[in-house]
């Protein structure tokens, strides 16, 4: 079967017959889970197996947003709570090496949780740098307020995931931290100069160009393209993401169902691919919306296929050894110092 360049969600804890039939026909590259899809380890493991069975690929990537803090799809009682990105930036404020070690440890533990149930991609790290007056949609999800701190701790988290056999997704490229609106609900418009964006917002992404996967920002940067958000802007994709930032990994859209985007789902999807995105992402499990995305998504081929294969090749089948009980105790001990 021919794989199409999109990632899809499903509606519940198990696949419906209609969903299974749709995925068999549409052949998405991968899938994404949300809280509505999560109950117990056994259930998540079975759902991941069912999703992969529909496309006939045991390596089909399954994604999740497991950042910690307020964005954590797998949580108690079956999985521990994890701190927000900002918490790592507050640890041992005068010792960035300790911050880095603990951020990596937290991500390594998350990877352990995810791999144990079949999830192989985490939409982490958040590389957005908040600015004064920006919307709190990023807020404490960010590792700090300087590009350097965000990049250092973001890299630590990405390395922790990779060591545990889970692919990181750097987001939201080329930067959501300055946005004055929540792109789930409205289209943010950023009016900073290109010089300021390159110095501040884009900088962390330039420091993590070796990461396999990235997610776009549904944000308009008037200094670059006053008409289109990054997701559907060829200018932003070519001049900034592939150009100034120098990123050659797989670029997926943020969720195509977010209200920052307008138009039909077919037109949104077509615009994202015309801009240069490699992969469409649709999250809410709506069959009507998914069908439109699938119809507009191209066959995964060419440079996008190369990038997708290169990403999957980064998943280690020999994860770094971890004693989860000891590692969790070390993480909790570090966190207790700022409680």
From TrEMBL:
Name of this chain's protein: beta-N-acetylhexosaminidase
Gene assigned in the entry: nagZ
Annotated Gene3D superfamilies: Glycoside hydrolase, family 3, N-terminal domain (3.20.20.300)
Domain Glycoside hydrolase family 3 N-terminal, first and last residues per copy: 30-315
Enzyme class: hydrolase
Catalysed reactions listed for this entry: Hydrolysis of terminal non-reducing N-acetyl-D-hexosamine residues in N-acetyl-beta-D-hexosaminides
Highest taxon, organism lineage: Bacteria
Organism listed in the record: Microvirga splendida
UniProt KW keywords: Glycosidase, Hydrolase
SUPFAM superfamilies from the UniProt entry: (Trans)glycosidases (SSF51445)
PANTHER family in the record: BETA-HEXOSAMINIDASE (PTHR30480:SF13), BETA-HEXOSAMINIDASE-RELATED (PTHR30480)
InterPro entries: GH, Glyco_hydro_3_N, Glyco_hydro_3_N_sf, NagZ_Beta-hexosaminidase
EC number assigned by the record: 3.2.1.52
Keyword Transport attributed: no
Pfam families found in the cross-reference section: Glyco_hydro_3 (PF00933)
């Amino acid at each position: 079967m021919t794989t199409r360049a999109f990632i899809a969600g499903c509606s519940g804890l198990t696949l419906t017959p209609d969903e299974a039939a749709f995925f068999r026909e549409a052949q998405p590259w991968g899938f994404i889970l949300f809280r509505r899809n999560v109950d117990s380890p056994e259930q998540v493991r079975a759902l991941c197996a069912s999703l992969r069975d529909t496309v006939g690929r045991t390596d089909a990537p399954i994604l999740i947003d497991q950042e910690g803090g307020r964005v954590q799809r797998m949580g108690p009682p079956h999985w521990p709570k994890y701190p927000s990105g900002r918490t790592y930036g507050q640890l041992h404020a005068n010792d960035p090496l300790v911050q880095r070690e603990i951020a990596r440890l937290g991500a390594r533990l998350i990877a352990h949780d995810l791999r144990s149930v079949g999830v192989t991609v985490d939409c982490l790290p958040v590389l957005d740098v908040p600015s004064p007056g920006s919307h709190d949609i990023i807020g404490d999800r960010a590792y700090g307020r300087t590009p350097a701190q965000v990049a250092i701790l973001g890299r630590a988290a990405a390395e922790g995931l990779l060591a545990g056999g889970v692919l990181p997704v750097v987001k939201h490229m080329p930067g959501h931290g300055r946005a004055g609106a929540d792109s789930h609900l409205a289209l943010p418009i950023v009016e900073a100069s290109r010089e300021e964006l390159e110095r501040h917002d884009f900088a962390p992404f330039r420091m993590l160009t070796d990461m396999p996967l990235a997610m776009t920002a549904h944000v308009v940067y008037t200094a670059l393209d006053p008409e289109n958000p990054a997701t559907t802007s060829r200018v932003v994709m070519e001049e900034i993401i592939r150009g100034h930032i120098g990123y050659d990994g797989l670029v997926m859209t943020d969720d195509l169902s977010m209200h920052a985007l307008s138009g039909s789902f077919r037109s949104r999807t077509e615009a994202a691919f015309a801009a240069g995105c490699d992969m469409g992402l649709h999250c809410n499990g709506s069959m009507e919306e998914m069908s439109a995305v699938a119809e507009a998504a191209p066959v995964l081929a060419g440079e996008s296929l190369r990038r997708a294969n290169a990403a999957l090749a980064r998943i280690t089948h020999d994860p770094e050894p971890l004693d989860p009980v000891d590692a969790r105790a070390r993480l909790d001990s570090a966190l207790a110092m700022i409680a």
